[in-house]
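Support case: user asked for a sample of complex input and structure output to validate their parser. Sending the pair below.
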Amino acid sequence: MKLIKFIISAALTILLVYAADRGSGTLPPIGHFMSPQTGFWQNDQSESPETKLNLSGLQSEVTVHYDSELIPHVFAQNDSDLYYAQGYITAKHRLWQMEFQTYAAAGRLSEIIGKKAIEYDRGQRRKGMVFGAQNAINEMLKDPILTKRLKAYSDGVNAYIESLDSEEYPVEYKLLGYAPEKWKPEKSALLLMYMTDMLAGRDEDLENTNFLSLFGRETFDLLFPDFIADQDPVIPRERDWTDFGAVERPESPEGVFKAIVQTTDVLDKPDPDNGSNNWAVNAEHSENGNPLLANDPHLGLNLPSIWYVMQLSAPDHNVMGATLPGALGVIIGFNDRIAWGVTNATRDVKDWYRIEFEDETKKRYRYGEGWRDIREVIETIKVKGGQAVLDTVRYTHYGPITYDETFKGNGRENLAMKWIGHLPNSNQNTFLSLNRAKNYEEYVKAVSTYTAPAQNFIFASKDNDIALWIQGKIANKFNEQGKFVLDGSNPYNEWQSFIPQEHNPHVRNPERGFVSSANQHPTDENYPYYVYDPTYETYRNRVINDFFRSKKTFSVQDFKDLHNNNYNLKAAEVLPTFLSMIASEVNSNTEGYFTTLSSWDYYNHTDAIGASVFEALWNEYYTMVWDELTESDLALQLPDSYQTIWLTKYHSNHEFFDLQSSSETEDAAAIARLAFNEAAKKLDAFKKSGKSLGWASYKGTQVGHLLQALPAFSRFEIPIGGNKSIVNATSKTHGPSWRMIVELDSETKALGVYPGGQSGNPGSRYYDSMIDTWAAGDYYELLYLPNSQAISGITSTTQLKP
Amino acid sequence: MKRILIHSILSISLAFLFQLFTPWWGVVIATAIISFIIRLKGISVFFTPLFSIGLLWGIQAYSISNANDFILAEKIAVLLPLNGSVGALILVTGLVGGIFGALGSITGRSLKVLVS
């Protein structure tokens, strides 16, 4: 009896300890997690940097000053130490995020969050994310200098990881019950792939093909034109291209080059609003007589933030700005000679080829007169708390067959992806060269080898040069090549060549005295190469350029005001039409909203109720107009706002305005009236919930934690105006992820802010410390230290010693 | 009563010491050892370490988090979910520690009974 008692109590204890140590399913390992000695309590602390750290991987001493926002200012005596320190310091503040993003890129999320991520992981593998990263790292490792830097960064990250006891792991590791693994240079390549996918991973070829098969050519061209009349392209229209001479461009092929493929299920796409603004003026157009440059990349609003601000200084350069945790150097920033920024220069750089196999063994596929061999890759997806999943991905010479009978598409056909993201590249080098560039020539040299994601690289220097290169490796396509699914058996459908780099559109010191970009068309239709993308932005660019045409000189305050400009050009272009359509049928339920809307000034300020009413009306209207498309079984994209408004104004009787669910025949005006009544009901319901109808409250901007916006670690109801298509591009979950303004005075001065904080630890006061400043439209003066002895504004210093 | 007090003081001390170099379940071994040495009667075998280890974890949690204005504790109290109540979170933390302390205690006591 005594023995049984002992065995039962011992067994029960061991069993429960085991369970509480390991966790199960979605349950955290409760014993480990709650223990004050090992669990989350240990993370309930804000950073108080050490004064001294011994790091055996260093060659010389490195000084790291921190300022009041925990921005590190790193002073190293050589390159290797600089990137070693960058790796170490970044990991110290952002380790979990660095790893998580590279796991996400590589399709390994099932390893940490379990079986619910399997389909996502399969998609990542089938997109060839690891394939692309591998091609990039192989190319990068051919360069001995870059290799040394990548290894130094990696060693720095690992030195930090190795210094940790498990109770010091970031809280997310404890919550999910796993541990950090060793960093490798491949992971930096994966992080860059993560960005390439975010910014150049979108295409609508399958949807275009579906649309064409359902509605025909004429309707397609009406709703999805390549160019639009109102466009104010990145390269001013004044630019004529005759200096290129007769360029070589492939002839459009005879007959059918498209494959007729109907697909119902496609991969999730990156957010179409991933984009940015940038602009610069030269000294003649600056009130202080100094060139000014601004940039604000618009990305998903997340915590920890995608950006991490640093100053990086070595004997040959001194650079500061926004870094990407996981990548080397500064991505958007300035040094003591120049400033640069980027916006996404979206182009159709991902195409689909229908593949025809010889037989069901799927070993060979048709190409021209013969057959080519498939390369099979067996992907092993490890799953937390479950069996590993195996997935066979077949590679053609185009790229991986993403869609086949086992994965999305139409459950039948094989579609291979050709994507610029897969090509070997040393894009990391572009940024490291920009960090060191001193003038226009060095800037051009730095960007000239850059392949993807194509960017509008804006530039200003103390030599009073302003410039913008639209740089990426872009296929030289025949007309409409890759707008629809291509027949992969026809060699003519290949990307036959690339646009010569020197023919990439660019502008230096234009007469108008400013350069700018906001994801609009790169050029007008006279540029001699084929330009296509389905997501060119049509509003922000016009507001920005109109502002710069409105007067002669500009101040830093003007730049701030423009970042925070809430003018809703889209509303200004459609609302008068809506109001005249609705006016005849306003009733007692909608009268109040009609009055609000009529007197609204088109500014999406935080308290503007008119902005909320417009948004509600627009959303209802847009949904009702395109009901044919959303109700289709096939995967389809909806025409953009600009084209919807154009149709409303000039083709108000188009059959698309007819509502599928009603027996009557509606036109645009009838839809506007129905939409307004629906919007009024939604607004009433919102008001009943007790919330204000002011725009910021109605929009409800939030910054969500990377782990599925875990509410506990996220920020909600942030009081900020703006919206998509507005220069202040802050929508509910997306917006300016870094705002920077640089004045190239004799000493470079800069302002910066982002919707997050320098620490990745939700327990730190620096986790979200900049959000309120960002929402208020304010900035921090960035402390750009000339050397390691300058300590004014510094709050603490860590000496890293070898 | 005196025995309970001594048991408590000793298990808190030993658990505190163990935690410096063992995983979190060092508290289980600590209470097992103390209950092997000091004989408690009846339900106090369970309840004494429940309170003593619970107190240890609760105080430790409070003092760590207090120094940081409970920034993370408030968030974890939303996550778990405890309606954002830090007090409830500290109580739950104490309860988890206490239960494992109690389990160790019962096992230690039953081993003592077995071998004596």
